[in-house]
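Review this:
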Amino acid sequence: MPAYDQLLGYPEFELDPHQTFASNPVYLIARDAKDSLTPNETQRNTLIAAGVYIVVIAILWHVPYISFIIYPFKLLTVGFHEMSHALVGVLTCAKIHSIELDPDEGGATRMSGGIPWLTLPAGYLGSSLIGAALITCGFNTNASKVATIALAAFFLVTLWWARRNWITWVLILGMSGLIILFWFVAQSVALRYLVLFIGVMSCLYVLWDIVDDTISRKVNGSDASSFAKICGCCPSQVWGVLWLLEAFAFFAGGILVGLVAFKQSAAQQKEDTSHFLPVPGTNHNA
């Protein structure tokens, strides 16, 4: 048989008698991946909280009179959307004139210059990426603290471009107060769940927005419609489906990265957070 294999040009394989299945590299990689993605108790609680958030958001979204509870978080996601346009515009040498939010959950980023085929999809994908990053940080208390510091910088830049828009001021000041309040609750454990909620809300809003603007109905003024006019090769629905798949990938990626990166138990997180930007008055020795 070896001579026949050589005749046909196939390489000759020999099994290593000392190699067992448990030492096979493919098995080791699969085992490590399984261990990394298997949630511990703290991570399971985080996943349960995220699932509850999805259900609650879906209910509040369609129930009159109580939907106002998530209204500020919707506006915050719109802010993520517009800020993503602006940031990519800056990176492509555009001049940002203003960012505006309106009470009807709409927004606009006025800029000149830049590269439209990068700035247009940046709204949906950027806000989805921000949401995924917040979901990842929602698995760890210290990471959530870092996330809120990044949000503070994000808020300051947004206020500079939206300084004449009173809705943006009210939204950012309200969110800043909420973040500070949750920072002081249960040694910032409440902050972790707030960051997780904002991340889930952002990702869900992006998914709904893409479907509503580009797939279920065609909005002529949407980012996808403008992008389709520039490219000229595909209708806006096609770009909407592609962006929807990317947004789903970001959502799932945020959860997977959180499972792999933050394996600390609740007790370990409590100990770590007492040494990193602790709540004033916390007893470190305890």
Remarks:
- The beta strands are 95-102, 106-112.
- The mean pLDDT is 86.
- The two ends are 71 Å apart (CA to CA).
- Residues 71 and 105 are 8 Å apart (CA to CA).
